[in-house]
Amino acid sequence: MTDEARDIGRRVKAARDALGLKQEELARAVGFASRQILSDLERGVRDVKASEAARLARALRIDLASLLADAPARPLVLWRAQPCEGAEAIEAEFLQWCERQRRVLRLLDQRPLDQLPVYDVELARMTYADADRLAGDIGQLLGLGVRPARGLSAALESRFDVTIWFLDTPGGCAACTRGEHGASILVPRSEAPWRRHFDIAHELFHLLTWSSARGSVPRWDETEAGRHAEQLANAFAASLLVPAEVVLRELDERSSERRVRLGELVAMARDFGVSLETLVWRLHNLGLWPEREIVRKLLADPRLRELDKASQAKEWQDPPTLPERFVQAAYAATLRARLSRTQLATYLGCGLSELPSRLAEYGIDEDLAEMAAQDLSVDRRSDDLDPLPMPSGQA
Questions:
Q1: Class of the domain covering 123-241
Q2: 1-71 in CATH: which number?
Q3: Is the predicted pLDDT of residue 378 greater than 60, yes or no?
Q4: What is the rounded average pLDDT for all residues in the chain?
Q5: Residue 98 burial (10 A CB sphere; 0-12, 13-18, 19+)
Q6: Are 220 and 78 contacting, i.e. CB atoms less than 8 angstroms apart?
Q7: Which residue has the higher pLDDT, 215 or 289?
C-alpha cells in the first residue's frame, strides 16, 4: 500500500459518499468488473490506472486534478429548497465549476477575491424590518438605481466579485456557496428571467449572512431556524428588487382615485424585472392591501395568470452557458501556456472540435487574441534622446 494509492482511495470514497452512490453503482458506472475492484481501490490496496482515474473523475463529477491531488475541503452549499432527486449530482457539478474557477485563477497567479460584506447577525432574532433595511443598504452600496433587477448580476460580479452559474437543475432550485473559490450562486437556467432575478437576490442574502450559516445543515427548510432564514431572504429579495419609495411613487402615477388596473400591475412587474406575485406581495407588505386573503384570491385568479403569461414572451432571454469572466480567465491561462487546449475544452464543458465556436459565443476571436498576446520588445537606447518634434500645427 503506497501513500499515493491510499490518498486517491480516500478521495474516491469521499466523492462517492458526497454523491450518495453505493460501491456497486460507481463500479458499474466506471466499468469495473466487480465491486471488489472499487473496494480495493478505496482502501488503497490497489493502484489506479490512468484510464481508470479519468473514468472515475467523470463518474464522480470532479476534475482529474482534484482526484489525483488534495483539493480544499468541500465547501457548504446552501439550497433554497433542495431538489429531492439528483441533488447530490447537481451539487457536485456546481462545486466542480467553482473548483475550476479557483484553479484557473491560480494558474494566472491570482486568488479569488471575496469582497462581499460580512454581516454577523443572529438570524433567529432578525426581523423582516431588519431584512428590509439591509436590502436598502446593499442597494445603495451597489448603486442599483430605480430598477435594481436590471443591473444586479453585473453589479455583484464587478463590485463584490460574486460568480453566478446558470445550470440545469430539476425542480428549479437555487443555491449558493462561499469558500476558497470565492462566493458563487447557482441559478436554474430554465427559470423565467424575473424568477432568476429573485433567485440571485435571495441567495445574496444568504451570502451576506454566511457567518451565521456555518455549521448549519444544507437543508434549511427542514428546521424552524432554516424556514425563518428563508423567509428573511425572501423579504430581503423583494425589498432589494422593488424599493419602497420607487414602487409607491410609480403606483401613484399609474393609479386613479386609489384604483389601479390589473394590466398596469402586470406592466409594473415586467418593468421592475420581477414576477407579478413578487410585486403584489411587496405592495401588500407596504400596506396597500391589508387583507392577505385578498392577495391570495387575486393571485389565484386564472385570468390574471393568463394576462401575466401573455406579457412574458418578449421578455424571455436565455442566460449565458458559463460566466463570461470565467471563460476569459480560462482562455488567458491557455494563451500563457498554463492550460492546454484540451484542458480548456474540458473546463468550458465542450469537445476540442467545439472549442472555437464556444469561445466565439463569448466574443473571443482566437486569431486576434493570439495577436494581442504577442510580446513586443521595447529597447530604449538612451535616456538623453531629444523628444521628437511635434507635427505642424500640433504644438
A1: mainly alpha
A2: 1.10.260.40
A3: no
A4: 84
A5: buried
A6: yes
A7: 289
Q: Which residue has the higher pLDDT, 346 or 19?
A: 346
Comparison of pLDDT for 2 and 251, the residue scoring more = 251
Q: Please state, in angstroms and rounded to a whole number, the distance separating the CA atoms of residues 130 and 205.
A: 12
* Cα gap 353→296, rounded to integer Å: 52
What's the rounded Cα separation, in Å, for the pair 282 and 252? Answer: 15
Q: Which three cell numbers stand for residue 369?
A: 487574441
Query: Looking at residues 204-216, what average pLDDT do you find?
Result: 81
For residue 205, give the nearest of 129, 86, 116 by alpha carbon. 116
> What is the C-alpha to C-alpha distance for residues 356 and 364, in angstroms, rounded to an integer?
8
Strands, sheet with 175-179, edge to edge from the N-terminal-most edge strand: 77-79, 175-179, 182-188, 162-167
The secondary structure element, H or E, covering residue 99 is helix 87-107
Residue 80 pLDDT grade (very low, low, confident, very high; cuts 50, 70, 90):
confident
Locate the domains of the chain by residue range: 1-71, 123-241, 244-315, 324-372
Q: Supply the angle between the helices 224-241 and 128-142 in degrees, to the nearest 10.
A: 40
Locate 27 and state its grid cell: 463500479
Closest CA to 124 of 225, 231, 233: 225
Cβ-based neighbour number of residue 87 at 10 Å: 21
Contact (Cβ atoms closer than 8 angstroms) between residue 295 and residue 289: yes
CA–CA separation, 177 vs 203, rounded Å?
9
The reply to whether 1-71 and 123-241 are identical in fold is: no
Q: Which residue has the cell 392577495?
A: 295
Lowest-pLDDT choice from 1-15, 227-241, 268-282: 1-15
SS3 at position 79 = strand
The residue with cell 479557483 is: 102
Task: Give 395's pLDDT tier (boundaries 50, 70, 90).
Answer: very low
Side chain identity at residue 155, one-letter code: A
Measured distance CA(77)–CA(177) in Å, rounded: 5
Closest CA to 18 of 55, 66, 54, 51: 66
> 127: closest CA among 229, 242, 243?
229
